[in-house]
TrEMBL record:
Stated name of the protein: GTP cyclohydrolase 1 type 2 homolog
Family (UniProt): Belongs to the GTP cyclohydrolase I type 2/NIF3 family.
Keyword Metal-binding attributed: yes
Positions contributing to a divalent metal cation binding: H66, H67, D105, H341, E345
Keywords, in A-Z order: Metal-binding
GO cellular component: cytoplasm
InterPro entries, sorted: DUF34/NIF3, DUF34/NIF3_bac, DUF34/NIF3_sf, N-reg_PII/ATP_PRibTrfase_C
Length: 383
């Protein structure tokens, strides 16, 4: 089977839907022809000189990275600029570039699931659950008979009644409608000045909130009445399995000092190493993790009833304030375990590689880069 670049992109976007990306992010296919054949895929955290050269030397047709190359807007990609030079090198070498960033952070499973697995956690759910899709429900009252099918089809075509892989979903109940037409009315059924009772069906369908105007317009256009009766309800947003960070459990509780050793053993070695803030003897079992920079989630962590939080790039002041807030008569706040940004996201590479292998089988050779592209190269402690 000849695999095309579009096939690999489809597999990755099914696992890491672009709609999950933050609005400031830049994800998806950066360069490459969707019709190009793909036999080898290379996966890395960073699109940098080292990983690009490694991918090309391995004969890769596609480099998949977590971090974007062109995150901020650019006006050109000339080869006389560092990022432009990388793009030109990839294109000349016949390789595409694909990025899954914040969409991979929020996906289920995603970056934080890979981090949790690397340190031996069983994931129970997201740390910051994403809100589910914004949904409405329309309730329309339609005369019983053939016209009901006409209205139902019009609402379905406008976007109502789609649930997962199903369309035309609805619920109908029989009842009696009542109305009294006044002067100026032009009733489809009945007459002005006469109270009318009609056998009607209450038709209920869910719809994406952004399709509300289309669905209401379809109802008004297809309904036989001059003034159809209908209601539109906003449904409560329910948390989903997607979202930033994960909460997980260790099989058994262990002291923070041992847990820090566990984290260090589960992640690739870096000059940054692993640092922890908290009582070394504090028992740790319920843990929050967030791949990449995670100090923006400290308040969510404090409210999550966890014993420790593993993330990267913790800054001095937020970490200090977090620790300080847990002193005194209050219960101690979760211990903090800080690791290198690159190390926290590197386990995702094997996850992404698994996505491609599962979708395309043996038709594509997938390789995970083990180059350490963490920018910090020297770590020292004063003696």
């Amino acid at each position: 089977m000849s695999v095309r670049l579009r096939d690999v992109v489809a597999a990755l976007e099914a696992a890491y839907p672009p709609r999950l990306a933050a609005d400031w992010d830049a994800v998806g296919l950066v360069c490459g022809d969707p019709d190009d054949a793909v036999a080898r895929v290379h996966v890395a955290v960073d699109p940098v000189v080292e990983t690009v050269e490694e991918a090309l030397q391995a004969g890769a047709d596609l480099l998949v990275t977590h971090h974007p190359l062109l995150l901020r807007g650019v006006h050109g990609v000339g080869a006389d600029t560092p990022k432009g030079a990388l793009l030109h090198k990839l294109i000349r070498g016949g390789a595409g570039l694909f990025t899954a960033h914040t969409n991979a952070d929020s996906a289920d499973p995603g970056v934080s699931d890979a981090l949790a697995a690397a340190i031996g956690l069983t994931v129970t759910g997201p740390l910051q659950p994403a809100a589910g899709p914004a949904l409405d429900k329309i309730v329309a009252f339609v005369p019983t008979g053939p016209v009901l099918a006409t209205v139902h089809e019009a609402l379905s075509q406008a976007g109502a009644g789609e649930i997962g892989d199903y369309s035309h979903c609805s619920f109908a109940t029989a009842g009696t409608g009542q109305f009294l037409p006044h002067e100026g009315a032009n009733p489809t059924i009945g007459a002005v000045g006469r109270l009318e009772r009609v056998a009607e069906t209450r038709l209920e369908m869910v719809l994406p909130r952004h399709r509300r105007a289309d669905v209401v317009a379809a109802l008004l256009a297809s309904h036989p009445y001059e003034e159809p009766a209908y209601d539109v309800f906003e449904l409560a947003a329910l948390p989903s399995a997607t979202g930033l960070g994960r909460i997980g459990l260790l099989d058994e509780a262990e002291p923070l000092s041992a847990f820090a050793d566990r984290v260090a053993a589960g992640l690739p070695s870096t000059a940054w190493g692993v640092r922890a803030a908290g009582d070394p003897d504090r028992l740790v079992r319920r843990v929050a993790v967030c791949g990449g920079a995670g100090d923006s989630a400290l308040e969510a962590v404090a409210a999550a009833d966890v014993d420790a939080y593993v993330t990267a790039d913790l800054r001095h002041h937020p970490a200090s304030e977090h620790v300080l807030a847990g002193t005194g008569p209050r219960a101690p706040r979760p211990a903090l375990v800080d690791v290198a940004h690159w190390a926290s996201e590197w386990p995702w590479c094997e996850q992404a590689a698994g996505v491609v292998r599962a979708a395309l089988g043996g038709s594509v050779d997938v390789h995970v880069s083990r180059l350490r592209t963490d920018p910090w190269t020297i770590g020292r402690n004063p003696s």
